[in-house]
Design brief:
Strand order of the largest sheet: 1-2-3-4-5-6-7-8
Helix content: 40-55%
CATH class: Alpha Beta
Strand content: 5-15%
Number of strands: 8
Structural class: alpha/beta
Oligomer: single chain
CATH architecture: Alpha-Beta Barrel
Length: 297
């Protein structure tokens, strides 16, 4: 039977901190992991979009999984991103990864080669069959140019025991609601967008995989907890208080925005790997002011 409880509430897609020479800053990664766990998040996602996974080597990915699993130490569940546009390569990566301490796999829709819905179904079915861990689909057509339709998602949810949820970042609330309406009881819909957390939970979603929670885990956790308890008045107050912060996360690219926030908080350096670059000075100043304002409120 599918176990969805591990992936209910607030997950955080953590950054991969780098030093100024672009090497991985494991000490900073440990600080971020402890920061979000102490802030009350329910689970951690490594090597997603926010973790700059596209710029990491295979050896670096293995090292990150092992390190975060060690630091997390089973305090919260751990999900790792393993996706791509070659089905067999994704399966091979899953098979050859040390998944000790990992509770689930987040697999993004294939990018660039733009498969049709039959191809998407077969891709994820093969991954689910080859995975020893539960699989969370990741639909983010703004990045992949490949949308997992509601029909395809529901077909996968019903036919693949190992597919337990979808992280939905399409921005299409009608599509998301069709999934929620038609899904089996043992399948979860998770918001993939901080701005859509309340609407998706209000429609029957199970929570969010958040970027904002890297910097503000306690507030984001409170927002999600209140939403899941149908206390939308309190949730809305938090959402509105952090509205500008959420906008600033993405205005000059992700994870540039959240790394600027974490740098201001002395949790990691303001360093990204090319082709990504830090936010410009104007945005950095706006982020600094927004942090000051929210800390005063």
């Amino acid at each position: 039977m599918k176990d969805m409880k591990k992936f209910r509430g607030i997950g955080v897609a953590i950054v991969t901190p780098f030093k100024n020479d672009s090497s991985i800053d494991f000490a900073a990664m440990g600080r971020v992991v402890n920061h979000v766990i102490n802030g009350g998040v329910n689970y951690i996602v490594v090597m997603g979009t926010t973790g700059e996974s596209a710029t990491l080597t295979k050896d670096e990915k293995k090292a990150i999984i092992s390190y975060v699993a060690e630091v997390t130490d089973n305090r919260v569940p751990l999900v790792t991103g393993i996706g791509g546009n070659s089905t067999q390569e994704v399966i091979n990566c899953i098979r050859h990864s040390n998944l000790t301490g990992v509770d689930g796999i987040l697999s993004v829709a294939p990018y660039y080669n733009k498969p049709n819905q039959r191809g998407l179904f077969q891709h994820f079915k093969a991954i689910a069959t080859g995975s020893p861990l539960p699989v969370i689909l990741y639909n983010v057509p703004g990045r992949t140019c490949s949308n997992i339709s509601s029909d395809t998602c529901l077909e996968l949810a019903n036919e693949c025991e190992n597919i337990v949820a979808i992280k939905e970042a399409s921005g299409d609330i009608a599509q998301i609601m069709r999934i929620i309406r038609g899904k089996p009881d043992n399948f979860s819909v998770i918001s993939g967008d901080d701005m859509m957390t309340i609407p998706i939970i209000a429609s029957g979603g199970a929570g969010v995989i958040s970027v904002l929670a890297n910097a503000f885990p306690a507030a984001t956790s409170e927002l999600v907890t209140n939403s899941l308890k149908n206390n939308f008045k309190s949730a809305r107050e938090i959402q509105l208080r952090y509205l500008e912060m959420i906008e600033l996360l993405f205005i000059d690219g992700n994870p540039a925005g959240v790394k600027a926030m974490l740098n201001i908080m002395n949790l990691c350096q303001n360093a990204l790997r090319l082709p990504l670059v830090p936010v410009n000075r104007t945005i950095y100043s706006r982020i600094q002011k927004a942090i000051d304002d929210v800390n005063k409120s």
